[in-house]
Design a protein that fits this description.
heterodimer, A: about 325 residues, mainly alpha, ABC transporter involved in vitamin B12 uptake, BtuC, two-stranded antiparallel sheet, 14 helices, about 5% strand, globular, B: about 350 residues, two-stranded antiparallel ribbon, about 75% helix, about 0% strand
Chain lengths: ~325, ~350
């Protein structure tokens, strides 16, 4: 048993979990073509969840602030992107892939911009007065989530909003008897790019060094003369922008969004960060991939249990590792 | 009197006035709507007081309180709608609902109360949302989004006279018909009173002192030899049972149980608001907060309707003042309250008196 666990650790430890899950699912499903379709769907969902959850995890790690209103930014991004896309139907329907992706890029950029501005306002107005007071943080950010959801209803109306997809990302490509939706590939590619970007930012730059140092020991960074407040607002805005980007991607994935999306996504996002461990983007990615894959596999194998699968996953992980799979060192 | 927990005289007088008003509600405010408001206040006092014991006294933030409330209500509702409207079905259903709440609470508590407070809040939120989705998905059992409508034992029916007057009709006392609805109201009132007094008793017992010690300094309480996880789990289970009992009362009173009346996120927000408005960790605050907010809910919408009508020509304002947007204003009020009056009405009044 000890030998086994040593081998596991050498091979990557908990990082292997998504792979193990995928292999178990392959054995249970049997048909490789279906398995590939489901796996790609799970990876795509996981990447979008990663975008939405990473900011929450980083903000908590750096400033010990848990933002229950975080998914409001995903909602905001989704609605902004949907509005932009609705105005650019000419580009979306064009035969040129440059115009197609251009429209999508503008929509995502608009969502990210909205996330940055929203994040700045949220941090200064809502969160700044309640630093270091968990109870009031939970209460106030919860109130902010409700207010933002209601404001979205005021601006965009209460009925679900259809979201257009660019022509090039519609449909699926068939390879043998495997069919894969183009949009999912795009989601995976974008997610990997963002993860790589975040990884480089955190591990190869001076700002990233400061952020990691702040997660490790905030007082020490402050004592060395760095203004951690500014750093924090930057991380908060970045996290909000990522959530808005994830929300925009999610809108295109679902193709129909409603104002209660924020509250619904919040649950999944929480499960992701609890599983992954708060404070590290590696953990968040791990948690997001696990949730995405298991959601898709269970949805296929036992449709009725799909709902509870994430809950069961969270409970099992919490029993095994009460702080999540890969929490930031504290 | 000092044994009955914190609170200045003004707070106690307000609570006493609310209690008397609730006791005499059917006679003081005749009509259909006031008695609905009064019954809702009674049920929410228990719900909010039990939540206060959890969040205000022990410092445990849970978002699953509506789930336990809903378990009690759905247990009663399912038993009454699956079988006849008998006392047996009511008791068995209610007991099963309360038991389910207890078991679930102890499970959640043992699994996740040992982790950090903030994790616990997230876990309860996730569990509660799954419960809400389950209630609307399992439509065969729970009636889905539409909920369940059922009849309670005949004794509670408005058509049942409690006693007859000389002419053989339903007797009247001070002009109020003595029918089953009055009886149902007093059942709700006295059960709520009993549960509230029990909760009040717990807060002034040695147990209450330990809970406050845990809230103030967990590590120190642990070092003094109190098993923090055991205490927290106990309180979580105890308050879950209280919430489920409140759910049973509400199910009997409304003769309807659905996601919107028991399980929804909005109810959880209501409870949070009531605790914060009344004052966390005061117990008296639960009464004040529940009474204030339930009244506001029933009558604020009328005000907003009028305001929306008055501003009909202006841009955006009517949309903001639409009665359906009252949650927006409650949310804003909630944020402002947490900023400026974290002690709530009861806490602020008490502090002001203590300063004199």
């Amino acid at each position: 048993m000890n030998q086994l666990s040593a081998t596991m650790t050498r091979l990557g430890g908990v990082n292997l979990l998504p792979l193990i899950v995928a292999l178990v699912a392959l054995a249970l499903i049997g048909a490789p073509s279906i398995w590939i379709t489901l796996t790609v769907a799970g990876l795509a969902m996981g990447m979008m969840l990663f975008l939405m959850a990473s900011g929450l995890s980083l903000v908590f790690g750096l400033m010990d602030v848990l933002n229950f209103g975080h998914s409001a930014f995903a909602s905001l991004g989704a609605f902004v992107a949907a509005t932009v896309l609705a105005h650019m139907s000419g580009w979306l329907g064009a035969d040129s892939w440059v115009l197609n992706l251009g429209a999508l890029a503008i929509a995502i950029a608009a969502a990210v911009g909205a996330g940055l501005i929203g994040g700045f306002l949220f941090e200064t107005v809502i969160i700044r007065p309640v630093y270091r007071d968990h109870l009031r943080q939970i209460l106030i950010t919860m109130g902010a989530l409700i207010v933002s959801e209601q404001l979205i209803i005021v601006v965009w109306g209460g009925s679900p909003l259809p979201v257009a997809r660019p022509k090039i990302l519609q449909g699926a490509f068939i390879w043998g008897d495997v069919s894969i939706e183009n949009y999912r590939i795009f989601a995976v590619v974008l997610g990997v790019m963002v993860y790589a970007g975040l990884y480089v930012l955190l591990n190869r730059t001076r700002v990233g060094l400061l952020i990691r140092a702040g997660v490790e020991n905030r007082e020490m960074v402050e004592a060395l003369g760095f203004r951690i407040g500014r750093l924090f607002i930057g991380v908060f805005m970045l996290g909000s922008a990522l959530a808005a980007m994830g929300g925009a991607m999610w809108a295109g994935y679902q193709q129909l969004i409603s104002p209660d999306m924020g509250a619904k996504m919040m649950i999944v996002v929480f499960i992701v960060v609890i599983i992954g461990g708060l404070g590290s983007i590696e953990g968040t990615l791990l948690g997001a991939l696990l949730v995405g894959l298991i959601d898709n596999y269970v949805g296929f194998l036992l449709p009725k249990a799909a709902l509870a699968s994430n809950m069961v996953l969270m409970m099992v992980i919490l029993m095994w590792r009460p702080n999540g799979l890969r929490p930031a060192a504290k | 009197m000092t044994k009955l927990g914190p609170g200045g005289w003004s707070v106690r007088l307000i609570v006493l006035a609310i209690g008397v008003a609730l006791l005499l509600a059917p006679f003081l405010f005749p009509g259909v709507r006031p008695i609905q408001v009064a019954a809702r206040i009674c049920v929410f006092i228990v719900l909010v007081a039990s939540y206060d014991l959890l969040i205000g006294y022990t410092g445990v933030v849970s978002f699953a309180h509506t789930m336990f409330f809903g378990l009690g209500a759905y247990g009663t509702a399912i038993a009454l709608s699956q079988s006849d409207a008998s006392w047996g079905a009511l008791l068995i259903g209610g007991a099963l609902g309360v038991l389910a709440a207890l078991v679930l609470a102890v499970l959640i508590g043992l699994l996740s109360l040992r982790v950090r407070a903030i994790f616990f809040a997230m876990v309860t939120l996730a569990v509660a949302s799954v419960a809400l989705v389950l209630a609307s998905q399992l439509s065969g059992l729970t009636g889905g989004e539409d909920g369940l409508t059922y009849s309670t034992p005949d004794l509670f029916s408005p058509a049942t006279p409690l006693w007859h007057d000389a002419a053989g009709k339903t007797a009247r006392l001070f002009g109020v018909r003595m029918d089953g609805q009055i009886l149902a109201y007093y059942l709700v009132f006295f059960c709520a009173l009993l549960l509230y007094l029990l909760l009040l008793r717990v807060t002034v017992s040695p147990l209450g002192t330990v809970l406050k010690a845990i809230r103030e300094n967990e590590a120190r309480a642990e070092a003094l030899g109190y098993r923090v996880v055991a205490y927290r789990t106990f309180v979580f289970g105890f308050t879950a049972v209280m919430a489920a009992l409140a759910g049973v009362l509400y199910a009997i009173w409304l003769q309807y149980t659905g996601p919107d009346t028991t399980l929804s996120f909005e109810i959880m927000v209501d409870i949070l608001l009531m605790v914060v408005i009344g004052g966390m960790g005061t117990m008296w605050g639960a009464v004040i907060g529940a009474a204030a907010l339930v009244m506001a809910q029933y009558y604020l919408r009328d005000v907003m309707q009028a305001a929306a009508g008055a501003t009909a020509g202006l841009p955006l304002l009517p949309a903001l003042l639409n009665p359906d947007r009252w949650l927006l204003w409650l949310g804003i009020a909630f944020i402002l309250l947490v900023y400026f009056f974290p002690a709530g009405i009861a806490g602020t009044l008490t502090r002001r008196e203590a300063r004199k």
